[in-house]
Amino acid sequence: MGVIGRDAEFSALDSAVRAAVGGRGRLVMLRGEPGAGGTALLNATAERAVAAGLRVVRLDAAPAGRHTPFALVGQGTAVASGLELAEAARALLSEWTADGPVAVLMDDLHHADDESILVLREIARELPHSPALLVTWHRTGTGRLETLEKTAEVHDVGPLDRETAHALVANLVREPSEEFLRLCDGASGNPWLLTALAEATGLSGAFARRVTARVAELGGPLARAAAVLDDQSTVDNLAAVLGSTPIDVVPVVDDLVAAGLVHEDGGVLRFHHDLVRAALCDTSSGLRRHVAHVLSRRHAPPSAIAAQLADAPGGVDSWTLDWLREHAEPLAKRPTPAALRLLADAVPALGPGDPRQLPLRAAHAEALLWSGRFDDASRTAHAVLAARPDADTRLTARMTLGALSVLRADTTALEQLDAARAEGPLPPRLAALAAFCCLQNGDFQGMGECVAAAQGSDDPLVEVYLLQCEAAPLVVTRQNTKAIEVLDRIDALLETTVYDRGQWLVAKLQRAGVLDTEGDLGVREVIAEARPVALELGGVALAWLYATSALFEWKRGEWDATLAEIDEAFTLPDLYGLDRMLRSIAAMIHLNRGDIDTARAHAATIQRDGHEVRGVAAFYEQIPTMLRALMAHLDGRDDEALTIARQFADGGVGVHSGFAVTAVGTNLVRIAVAANDLELARRLVDQMAQTISDDSRGFQSVLRYCRGLVDGDVVLLREVQREFTEQHNPMATARVAQDVAMVLAASGHKDDAKTAYDAALSAYAGVDATGAIQQADAAMRATGVRRGVRGKRSRPKQGWDSLTDAEQRVAELVAQGRTNSEIAGRLFISPRTVQSHVSRILRKLGFSSRVEIATGFGQRG
């Protein structure tokens, strides 16, 4: 019958048809958005009714000269009283059933007049005693029909789900491509749009004309203006574009909303279906230049005006060039694809010697930079400098090259700064940028000199750079409260006064690092906010984001999520030295899980690939160094492990020795205590004490842990165990519980040691740390303590019980029909991480599709 995905509706209609054959009629009202397939459902119902022996009567309540139900009763004469109405209804029902059971099918009931609706109410009351089925279709949200709906069996005909929508398209298009199916997703499951798109074989002019024609009767000019305006589609803007008044526009907007074409969101009209907006835009390109002028007069955001000008037919005109020169800076700093196209088209439109050319080319270079097109940005900026521009344009080009070197973690910025110094004292912006470059390279002395040269400027961008230089040492020295205060000031400047995408990202990642030290789960939200910008920019910022996320999830015991982030990071062409840190984390996870071979492979790769450390990677160098110590300790090479620990104590690892020690101190102190080198252990603790401020709650717990370990203080260790639990650090919780057991065993309290060790085993088992359990067993056996209660059983390798907590959450959301993007937004992770989870779920469950996950989730034991 050509209707796909409506099994529930057909089941209800089949039941109603059978009841009418038996003399028990009813009113069935189908309702949905325009294009949801109401007419197709009525046609299919007619076929089923005829097959069951019913006569079929078709009615249409649509205007434009066609009959309404009431016109069949009184030839347009109004019904004056309830008695006359009841008689009219009975007469109509009698007429319909005169020749036996009947199915009356009525389309577009939302157009029916009030008298018709009253007649239908009376008919509905008689239907249960008559061999007549009345089926109607109307748009959702038709308020005049609410009373009638109370007397009926009502079915909401919703959009098709994604799988069914693709099946519908596959019936119409032979082997649709993935690109075409993605285009179909813009129909949001609307059958009419999907059919029209398939018949036009894409977003062609034919499809656009067909959609525009369908919208025309609902307020075509306003709908086209709303489509072109997009996010600026307010009533006031619509009125301005149409040369009307808001009072005149509101009724048409109400009609579009009632028709289900658009909805209002925060005062902006938004189309229910992306395809409809795209189709209307396709037939309305001539409006764009006019819309741009209107938006300019109304002081709309430059990006909104650029979106109109970039797609306006006829190329770049003189007005556009003048407007663009005035607004180039904000467009370059927050480039949209439209703004980037517009800047690229503007430069060729200018003749040689035009004073607007070089400033626009410099703005284009900056826009390319913040769009992640680093090579193009570099070429364009160098070309600008080669043309000997004025001082302001020269500064813009050099700032672009400087920011580019920051994102690439190279030294080209310093070369540009040397060239600038040859022309005289560095402008404050370049001096501040130089300070940040020195900070990135771990050159704190050079940073201080450049900060001094930039002082005294009232430029807000200079202030942002200098505040970053102030925040980083606070983060390094664990002065978290002060660091957050400075980062708040940076955020305020970037949100209200000036914008720099690179510094915005740095501030977010700095904040994530501070929150991580406190065990604050808000890190996930910060990373989720930063991820889209980092993905767009790429460079060292993206590698740093993966490293920050992996480090956080590692500490929280979310090891599958950690490995997924690491896998995603290794798809990048360059990790700027952070690959050493990421491989080290992966190796330690595999160590804790008992996969020694994989851990050794990661460690060997780190050694083989050398010691390239660039930019921010220098601040994480303590992690691969710690891995070397752990591997040596695991292999019984305690002398080598202690030598590495002494390198830390002597300040020979990382950019800042105190920072390096505090980041990995617990492992180093444990190694020293296990080797009975308490002097080394105390040296490490002293270094930590000098670095950690009182307001760094997370690292105060680390310091207290190490002191308790060195002093054998069970009371202190148990306090720290509770703190680690509150800070969501399961491995630290497990280790301190094991250390409590070791101290108790050494002092002869075997029973208490056994109880403490059982708690450690339970904590280790909670994160599937089977390797850590094996190592702990060996250490405890040496004290004469063996396992009591064995804690949680090991997780199986296959089946639903084999899924980690993270995988269980993803499986549940997959079962709800959510896409990877939706799941990523819900769980504050990336879509690629979600896909990694889904792949592991499929492998562990032996499934081959998401549908099987959904089905199996509902049936799991």
UniProtKB/TrEMBL annotation:
SMART domains: AAA, HTH_LUXR. SUPFAM superfamilies: C-terminal effector domain of the bipartite response regulators, P-loop containing nucleoside triphosphate hydrolases. GO terms for biological process: regulation of DNA-templated transcription. One of its GO terms (molecular function) is ATP binding. InterPro entries: AAA+_ATPase, AAA_16, P-loop_NTPase, Sig_transdc_resp-reg_C-effctor, TPR-like_helical_dom_sf, Tscrpt_reg_LuxR_C, WH-like_DNA-bd_sf. Pfam families: AAA_16, GerE. The keyword Nucleotide-binding applies. Keywords: ATP-binding, Nucleotide-binding. GO terms for cellular component: cytoplasm. Residues 796-861 form the HTH luxR-type domain. This is AAA ATPase-like protein. It comes from Herbihabitans rhizosphaerae.
